[in-house]
Specification:
The chain contains three helices and no strands. The chain has a domain of 62 residues. Helix content is 87%, strand content 0%. 6% of the residues are buried. Helix 2 runs antiparallel to helix 3. By secondary structure, it is an all-alpha fold. It is flat, with a radius of gyration of 20 Å.
Amino acid sequence: MFFGPESAEDEQADRDLRKGLSEGSAETLRAFALLAVLIQAAVFAVALGAMLLGFRGQRLVGGALIGGGLVGLVVAGVVYRRVERRTAD
C-alpha cells in the first residue's frame, strides 16, 4: 500500500539509499545536480525552439533557442568530462 506501514523491502531500500548517499562525496552530488538542471534546460530550449521554428515560423527566436540549447548540451558535456576526470584520480 502506498501510504500504509513500511514493509521490510522499503526499510532495506531506505537503508541502501542512506548508505549510498553517505558514501558519495558532496562534490559529486553538486555536479550531478548541476548537470541534471543544465541538461533539462538545454533539452527544453532545443525542443521549444524547434516547435517555434517548425509550427510558427519564428526563425529568430526558434533558432536562438535551438542554438542556446545546443550550447548548453556542449557545456554539460564539458562539465561531465571534467568531473569524470577529477573523480577518476
